[in-house]
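## retry 2 of 3
previous attempt timed out at serialization; input unchanged, resubmitting
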Amino acid sequence: MTISVGIIGTGVMGADHARILASQVAGVRLHAVTDTDPGRARSVADATGADHVAANPMALINDPGVDAILIASPDQTHRELTLACLAARKPVLCEKPLAPTARECLDVLAAEVALGRRLVQVGYMRRFDPAYVEMKATLQSGRLGRPLFFHCIHRNLSAPPWFDSRMAITNSAVHEIDIARWLLEDELESIQVFRPSTSDPLGEVSPVFLVITTAQGRIVNVENNNNGGYGYDVRGELACEKGSVSLHSPVNSEISINLVRGTSYAPDWRQRFAQAYRQQLQAWVNSVTTGVAVGASAWDGYAASTAAEAGLKALAEGLPSRITMEPRPALYA
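## retry succeeded, writing output
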């Protein structure tokens, strides 16, 4: 069975998703794309073999030739478009965040619960990354005993001009927030955010350090530096009572020259998580075919946004902040 997919938004992520779906995912046909820039949408359609360019998102969602929708438009559009997909009873993969605020995420949850079935997947692709998958399998094997600490590092080469320390939490560290919940199978209870002294105290993108506690007494820490200066670098170590397990980024080659042996860093997240994106999209396409939901649910999207908002409160107040969520609906049990 082949499903027909429509993509809303053909910027960096939408164009990448279109390319991967068209060339690396089985059982799918790219039926339509749409973007606020028609020329950009046409360019992506031509490059990927999409059947046509839709006039606008609602035309794409309501197109009878579209079986499922991928939302890669700006964050502020996610709630409205996801709700429209649910109204059309079509499966949707929405890039994070699920909605601009945690409160708006609840609107999506309510609509999906009213349908009585999971149609929403949120694009937290690290859940499909082989390194994280192996880390979780090692933990579940029981060999390492009870988990104690999850240490995370998230560094980027440089931040764009519009990026600030708040976005370091809501846009970057939110990936660690989601993966910690998934890895530990534990809810997050409190968060505190620290900012180190830097040579540019007035800089908009100061590094942040998050300390998170969980319901079962684990401790998660996240160093996030969006101006790391040397490349994209994501690390993680899960320390347990009997041992530890660490992530390794994929390395395809090693260079030896002038008495130096080394490897290179990716310039951004797309190269590092290329396999995760492929596997996420293949799993999503398979789930549309089988009707069995996979990946981060709307509830997971809400949980990540709630924790990130608590992080913003902690950053502003300089104090720990409780992470308080509404009761989990039975649909997401």
